[in-house]
Amino acid sequence: MTDALVASGLRKSYKSAVALAGVDLRVGAGELVGLLGPNGAGKSTLTKIAVGLVRPTAGHVEVLGQPCGSLAARAQTGYLAELFRFPGWASADEVLILHQRLARSDGGEAERRRLLELVELSAATDRRVEAMSKGMQQRLGIAQALIGDPRIVLLDEPTSALDPAGRRTVRELLEGLRGRGVSVLLNSHLLSEVELVCDRVVIVDHGRTIAEGTPAELTVPGGVEIETEDGPRRYPQAGREDIPDLIATLVAEGERIYGARVVSGSLEDAYLDLVGAQEQG
Amino acid sequence: MNGALADLRIIAGYALRETVRRKVLVVVGVLTVAFLALYTFGCVQAFDEVRKFSGPAEGVQIEEEVLTGATLLGLAMFVTLFLGTVLAVFVTLNAVRGDAEKGLLQPLVVRPVGRSTLLLARFAAASALCVAYVAVVYAAEIGLTAAASGGYVPDNPVRGGISLAFAVVVVVAIALLGTTLLSSTANGIAIFMVFGAGLASGLIGQIGEALDSASLDQISSIASWALPFEAIYQDGLHALTADVRGATGAIVQLGPFGGAQDAGPLLYPYVLAYLAVVALLADRIFRRADL
Question: How far apart are CA A72 and CA A57, in angstroms?
Fold first, then answer.
């Protein structure tokens, strides 16, 4: 099966500033890939190149087997930009009608209703964009990205303006897309969200890929925590199999033990370690 | 091809809806009605005064109605071109750079629509709107002048209208080229300055004619070819009084018709070539732009 997105040796420079310094990235068919990195790492540039908004300085990107930015690639791609706006004078329904026509979607009113329901904007069908909150506009942006049932969706910070309930809605929506075999490239700063939904994570920094793998592969084990009379004691290098010996040693030293647990590491810890190492390196 | 045409229609429709919803047309309509009302008042007053005029010295034949009607229409044509330019600037002001900076353009550009189609659609919508506008205002001016004078119609009113339409299309094209390079405010300022430069070149030509200065004539001529809306406008102005002869013709030349001249048969082919070059340049810049 053709990969949904393949980027190889991707470089982008703006005069002397290097945004991408040779990134390789692959999003498999039906895969949900999280793209992480600090501000200015090149995540948005990479996404923009993939949808044809920005021309690469060097390298190559294919979307569903087509050159990125080609009409054939764009016809099968849904995209939500990090910074976007819809015309304030248009209603939610009018925005979706315009994009349906441009995407050559024949979904009609049923598709619009379904998408607005999906992003919980059913009650705002006729509301003008200028009368919507930022969060509502972001939901509308997500609905717009899903018009015409694209085979790959690129979302650049889709939850930045959403409240916790909105984030959960997007999470469920992403899981729904994966269930339908749609590939997703999710560019987000919310590591917990990425950890929860993504099959694979790619971390970029200074325009390069610094780590790649499943959230479990990237996550660093957090060690063992034992609760004693003096408070919790942390053993970062220990694992589950070390717990009996650790307890025995502590008891022999006269400590009273109230509990013990394996601390699972988080993607956030792994991310901060990797990015921090880059900064120091 | 059918897909591109359909996209062109969709984007042009979107651009026109935007001008209606943003109440641009309402503002322009109200201002135009105010201008036409003042123009009517001015016409009625001017023709009343002329009718009281006792006439020139014996032996000098002056057609007062022609002189007054042509002068008023010449001034009205200038105002119409100015209003058409204002409309052209405001409907194209942020079509590319401005909309891209606001994030309005990106959701459209990622759709399977060619950037050239998008630009062409914006050009078609703005041109259609501005041409319709100057045509309606110009027709109203001709009608009002005829009504106030009791029947005065200029020599070649159709050519005058065509020249206004072409002039405003040239302004739209320059403004769209500007919007591929400049943000909204900078583009608006730049286009008004270009328009002013065009008018200044017309005035320089008029002064050159009066002083019989070859240098000034040449400067004016070069500027008119570089900014051909001015040459088209002068050509249209000339058409209004092309057949006026004698003392009336001489006096008409002292008014707004001083710089008016027939630009010759090459003008319109040149304008079409000019539009093609501007369009190609704008298209090339837009297609290579990072958004």
Answer: 22
Last residue of a domain, one of A189, A215, A241: A215
Q: How many domains does chain A have?
A: 2
What is the tens place of the pLDDT at every residue in B61-97?
Answer: 667 788 888 888 888 999 999 999 999 998 998 889 9
CA atoms of B206 and B226, how far apart (whole Å): 17
Question: Given the structure tokens 């900064």, which residue do they identify?
Answer: A279
> The domain spanning residue A89 has which CATH number?
3.40.50.300
Q: Chain B partners of A54 at a C-beta cutoff of 8 Å?
A: 290-291
Contact B288 A89 (CB under 8 A): no
Number of domains in chain B: 1
A to B CB pairs, distance under 8 Å: 64
For residue B257, pLDDT over 70 is answered with no
H/E run at residue A234: strand A231-235
Residue of A47, A102, A140 to mutate when probing chain B, most B C-beta within 10 A = A102
Q: Looking at the complex, report in whole angstroms how far the Cα of residue B217 sits from the nearest Cα belonging to chain A.
A: 44
- Mean residue pLDDT of chain A comes to 90
Higher pLDDT, B260 or A98: A98
